[in-house]
């Protein structure tokens, strides 16, 4: 089976046969060089892909940690609101009592 670009060999032992063999070696060497270059490029793409994947995984981990912190902060805010609401109610009641005392003071 001949490679693409290969020519059928001339009768063995002739100068033409030697020249054809030399040309075929050149084509083969060129193909090998191209395959090696393609493999090197592919290996670099794999290295780059691994690096990007590692960075992506790190960002996912960071996002998870941030989400956990946000949830904790939300809980704290909710707890603070639950403490503030009764205090606001007390403040209103104190305001009402103060107004009543002022009225009684004026009456007295």
UniProtKB/TrEMBL annotation:
It comes from the Eukaryota. This is ICE1 protein. PANTHER family: LITTLE ELONGATION COMPLEX SUBUNIT 1 (PTHR11852:SF4), PLATELET-ACTIVATING FACTOR ACETYLHYDROLASE (PTHR11852).
């Amino acid at each position: 089976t001949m490679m693409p670009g290969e020519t059928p060999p001339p009768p063995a032992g002739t100068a033409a046969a030697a020249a054809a063999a030399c040309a075929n070696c050149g084509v083969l060497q060129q193909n090998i060089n191209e395959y090696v270059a393609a493999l090197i490029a592919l290996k670099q793409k794999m290295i780059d892909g691994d690096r990007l994947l590692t960075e992506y995984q790190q960002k996912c981990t960071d996002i998870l940690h941030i989400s956990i912190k946000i949830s904790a902060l939300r809980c704290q805010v909710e707890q603070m609101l639950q403490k503030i609401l009764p205090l606001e109610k007390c403040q209103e009641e104190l305001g009402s009592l103060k107004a009543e005392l002022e009225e009684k003071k004026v009456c007295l």
